Amino acid sequence: MTFSDQINYFKAAAGFNQPDVGDPDQNAANTVIGAISIAVGKVNSDHGPVPTPTLAATIEFLSQRVTDLKTSEADLQTQLATRNTELAALRGQYQQQVDQHQGARRSAETDLANLRDTTKEQLDARQKQIEDLARNLSDVQIEFDEATATWTAERKKYVADGEQLVIQVDDLRKKLKDATRVSFERPDGLVRWVDNTAGLVWINLGSQDRLRLRTTFSVYRKAHHGVARGAEDIKGQIEVTRIIDNHTAEARILDHDIYDPISRNDPVYTPLWSPGRTESFAVVGLVDLDQDGVLDRDQFHDIVSDAGARLNHEVLDDGTRVRYEGFPDKFINWTEGGPTMDSDTKYLILADIPDPALALREEDKTIREAISAHLLAMQNEARLKGIEEIRLSDFLEHIGYRPQRRLYIPGLVDRPFNLRQGAASVGTNEVVGDRSAAGAVSGVYGRSKRLKPQTSAGQTSNLFRGGSAQ
Question: Containing H/E element for 94?
Answer without folding.
Answer: helix 55-180
